[in-house]
Amino acid sequence: MDFVKKHPSLPAFIATLLIFTLAVTFLSEAYGTGTMSTSFVKTLGKTLCLALVAISMDLVWGYTGILSLGHFAFFGLGGYMIGMWLMFARTKLIVVESMAAADIPATAMEIKDAVGTQIFGVVGSSDFPLVWMFAHSFWAQIALVVLVPGLLALVFGWLAFRSRVTGVYLSILTQAMTLALSLYLFQNDSGLRGNNGLSGLQNLPGLDAVSQDAVSIWFFWASAFALLVTYLIANFVVSGKFGSVIRGIRDDEARVRFLGYSVEGFKLFVFVLTAIIAGIGGALYYPQAGIINPAEIAPIASIYLAVWVAIGGRGRIYGAVIGAGVVSLVSTYFTGGQAPNINLGFYTIKWVDWWQVLLGLSFVLVTLFAPKGIGGLFDLISGRLSPSRKGAPLGPDQGSLREQEAEK
Amino acid sequence: MIRRILAACLVFLTLALSAQAQDRTIQDVLQEHAEAIVKSSRTTIGPAIEAVANSGQPSAQTVLQKWQNKDMWQWSENGFFYAATVDGSEITLTDFDTGDIVATVAKGDVTQLKPNSGIRAMIGAALVQFQLNDPDAERRREALLAIQRDGEASHLAPLRASIETEDNPDIKALKEVTERLLTISFDKDDARRIAAIEGFAASLSLDARAALNPVLSAKLVYAEDLPETANIKREIKPGSEALSVSDAFALMVSAGAATAQPTLSERKSALTEHIIDGKVGGVPVAELTRQDARDHAYQALASEGLVPAFDPAFSMEAAVKGVRFAEVYDEPSAAVTDAAQKTLHTINRAVGVNQFLDLSLDGLSLASIYFLAAIGLAITFGVMGVINMAHGEFIMMGAYTGYVVQQIIPDYTISILVAIPMAFAVTFAAGVAMERLIIRWLYNRPLETLLATFGVSIALQQIAKNIFGTQARPLTSPGWLDGALVFNDVLAISYIRIAIFVLALIFLGIFLFIMKKTRLGLETRAVTQNPRMAASMGINPDRVNMLTFGLGSGIAGVAGVAIGLYAKVTSEMGTDYIVQSFMTVVVGGVGNIWGTLLGALGIGFLQKGIEWFNPSNTLAAQTYMIIFIIIFIQFRPKGIIALKGRAAGD
After folding, report:
1. Is residue A276 part of a domain?
2. In total, how many domains does chain A have?
3. pTM of whole model > 0.90?
4. Any idea where the domains of chain B sit in the sequence?
5. How distant is the Cα of B603 from the closest Cα of chain A, in angstroms?
6. Which of A367, A400, A401, A404 to mutate to test the interface with B (most CBs of B within 10 A)?
7. Range B166-175 average pLDDT
8. Is residue A59 part of a domain?
9. DSSP secondary structure string, A271-293?
10. Cα A188 from Cα B596, distance rounded (Å)
């Protein structure tokens, strides 16, 4: 009960998520009236995963003050890890089926070679690279979903934090890491099919009989559940003493260090934890998207992630969820060609062309006029306003909000 | 019958010749060999071609050309040969010597000479000497270059003959080089070939390497029964990089020294063929999912004699063990290959040195591109500390400005001269507008500057896409920037890259001048170090920030014109440079232009150096370079040149 008291948003969030999940289920084609198309269920499921990774971004940026431009790379890595198993297992089933027609049953070696040719033929190879060592095992790849982003974040974070790279330099460094990773994956000899990426991930091995209508709802449930768990974990992390310390690091790192806290350790913990959350989000997202390629990891995706959090309102976890949900759904609406064109007489605004301009300008406007983002609206409703400090900065750090800005 | 007539003609001609021996015409020469010419056989035509070529008649070349092109016809009335032009059924005959039109006759009265391809080649070879001795030097050069491209053994003699009489020193040198190339490839005398090969020592010419490589061509062979005379390059152990075990075994098989074992797939298809009642060799088909079960079934079939025998203990490693394999030159003479090997070694060393220089030039030009892209950022980010993610889009705006100017002003030289200040003006205005509207509200919140400018960046990108479309737009450089400054066959640099290098130097100068020598520079430094103090001294920080940001953006625009000249202009070109530019500034050390210069040089050379290890893969080069930079920043977080004292901030 204490926990709920500490987090008044929790019951509301859980209730909203529950109602949303039930509503989608009852409208879906598989378990309900069928009003909602399967592709839209998938879109919603993907949006939940994006909300998941937005929470991790909010933890690392909104609470700890590290503007990481690499969390979408962790997201993508998670997707690659699960994608390897999906692709391997499904290709193997297909190969075994086609080989069953032969006069002589195939040996394990022949099956493996045929699977290799199927998967890597597109990059002119047929051998399994070393990174596919565990692709045959579902549980091993699930472990890698957690381990690979976690280890990368651990090594990178340790190197970066111990040399005290902070602020915008750290942002640029994480962006460089993301760029390096995506460039590496773009190569054909990276072992992950170059720019072809991994495809056909929406087909679960052994579940050919189950229609995508049902599978999409399953993934939707799984995503909703993962989001709920992440939300609870995130609330737990930011509450209590740990949460105070990381907020302290955000506002004045040097002061927290002088108080005797191991700033690097705290940062590293948050960085690795959020990388793991992002990886899990990716592992749920890409089976719904069906395809993953290195372009998904490009630095711009991570910047978008930061923008969702900024628009939703950083420093509050439901803000990240709202930001990711609103921006990605509105974006789907405009880029999907559903938005009506606006005829100005001399020029017709096609939203497919102009949506990005609108999006870009709205970042600027949100940053300038609504630093609290959409989440700030809840403060207006609850009447929680910042105390009057006669225009002084709200925090001790140069980078913290000034009072006038906060009130906008 | 014809031969009789011809013989009669010949007699008649001989008589005529004796009458006017001193003015022999080409027709006389042709008639002397008329029989061979008409017969048109490869074995007998030689003396006829030679006679024409060596007749010393001015029209000899024309005759050979017409003959080669099947434009020489024989008139049956007198048996003479004429150049002919066919016009419908009428044929106009022209005399070779005088160039006069002799007659216009019907097709039936003349016979076309149709030399076959062999003869045409012989005529071609005879023609070479005319080209090599052509009075026009340019045509001699063309002929020589043609011979260098695809020479033939028959070119050698006329080429050698023409060297002595050559009076143009350039062409004489070219002739000597060509002669050596031909000698290496075609001469029969080894001593001459060796001399020619050694003549190319330390040469950088691609042709020299092209001529030497075939001399050194070698193939892998099974060496146990190699003849004594074989010119062996080296002995090779199977299982090494040059010769895999399976390749070595295949060589043994093709030499008849071993019998091939049925391969895995052959055994499998043999098994498939012998399935009887769901069993193969007594083994149920369902059990054949393991290799040892298959081997067992195959053995059973082999012992019945149904399939070729297979020894399960057989291994290729054992079969090729202790067997000699060698690489053998196609060229039989060891002296020649040794000389070629030695010469190629000196050539490779010289080429290596020049390739290193070439790589350095490449690195330098890449560095100047990075420097150009980063110098604007060195002002906005380095000096002012503003993260401007739209910097790349300012580069793009500059490039598109150049493109638009070129649409209006067709002359490329003038349009570039107009485009540079135009690009500066446009991006300066854009930068000032952005500073006034967005950035000045966010000076206390650098991370949010990043987001807001990123918003501007994607909006600008999409606007450019809407206006100019998604396809790349060309920004054409003026004609005098075409081509390259060629030092030799290896070392060359295109003029555009030189121009970009010069432009980078100019911008370095401008930056230093503004920062160190002008009022604006002084005020900028004052405001960035301590805005409040600067304001107390009567400097208007708002104005200074605005102008400084505008300056940085304007320089980005000019860089855009320069980059657009050598790369295509697209709406996404900015994103290619933004991360690299930030890297350049961060690696170099924020707030110091020399640091940016060092950063650009370091990154440029590093990238080219990594590319050199793996030239086919520029993606890998970029990946490793970024990883290297990340590691570098671990050790020098403040960059190569770190600011000290109060200017360094925290």
Report:
1. yes
2. 1
3. no
4. 2-120, 133-217, 219-329, 354-575
5. 14
6. A367
7. 80
8. yes
9. HHHHHHHHHHHHHHHHHHH-EE-
10. 33
